[in-house]
Amino acid sequence: MNALWFNDRYMPTNAHGKEQPAEELNPGKLARDFWTRCIADAGPGAQERFKEAFERFFESVNIQARARDAGVVSDFESYIDLRRDNSGCKPCFALIEYTLDIDLPNCVVEHHIFQELNRWANDLVAWSNDIFSYQVEQACGDSLNMVAILIKYHGHTLQSAVDYVGDLCAQTIAGFQHDREQLPSWGSQIDEMVEKYVEGLQNWIVGSLHWSFQTQRYFGTNGAEVKRTRFVPLLPHEV
After folding, report:
1. What's the CA gap between 89 and 131, in Å, rounded?
2. Where are the alpha helices (DSSP H) in the chain?
């Protein structure tokens, strides 16, 4: 986050437990270079939303990493709250504005229906990812996954847990479609920006699904076959 708040210089902190080295690490240099170029064109609102979302992302990833190291498995509700921040979607959604060269006013961003659309999109990406990633994560003993939590705490079998998460995904799509039709009007100029942004959320939903089968991250070279058959042979547990 140092690079986002002080884009023109490196200012290491000496705060207890958060000490940083005198020489900036390469990831920080990369972030600084990205952000310096981004803020030249990004609107002030989009910049603020990106920084706030990115900070929450790092905080939630840190919480998850410490829980994983300690062997702690969250309850279902706590996991949902954490997953919504560590999915990585929120900072990316802020970049939708940047890519479209728009800067949404607060009256839009703070509207409850607009916020619900963001939540639906975030939830769909996160919940579906937990289905796609389960076989890889179970193989390495990682239980920080919605499917694994349903099995551990709620008496589900593997198949019923996957079906349950799949139903949640279907609910998010229905919710997104419904709320999209409920958006109020803020005038033609703002409405055009909102329409472009919501289309960006829609593209994020569809794009994440396509990517999940095209990448080798979850299904190796069998993504197309898994997409066709919806059958996933589980990987053996790593020793």
Report:
1. 17
2. 2-5, 26-38, 44-70, 76-86, 89-100, 106-109, 112-139, 146-154, 158-180, 188-214, 223-229
pLDDT of the chain along its 239 residues, tens only?
Answer: 566 666 677 777 778 877 888 887 787 788 788 778 888 888 999 999 999 998 899 899 999 888 888 888 888 999 999 999 999 999 999 999 999 999 999 999 999 999 999 999 999 999 999 999 999 999 988 888 999 999 999 999 999 999 999 999 999 999 999 999 999 999 999 999 999 999 999 999 999 999 999 999 999 999 999 999 999 988 887 75
- Kindly give the interhelix angle for 158-180 and 112-139, rounded to the nearest 10 degrees: 160
Tell me which residue has tokens 């939540």.
119
Give the span between the Cα atoms of 202 and 182, in whole angstroms: 16
Structure tokens at 237: 């547990």
Q: Which of 130, 58, 63, 131 is nearest to 90 (CA)?
A: 58
The whole-angstrom separation of Cα 127 and Cα 46 is: 26
**CA 41, CA 60: separation in Å to the nearest integer?**
28
Q: What is the dihedral of CA 134, 140, 146, 148, to 10 degrees?
A: 100
Distance CA 165, CA 2 (A): 37
Secondary element (H or E) of residue 57: helix 44-70
> How many of the other CB atoms lie within 10 Å of CB of 80?
16
With 0.85 as the threshold, say if the pTM is over it: yes
d(CA 72, CA 196): 41
- Round to whole Å and give the CA distance between 189 and 192: 5
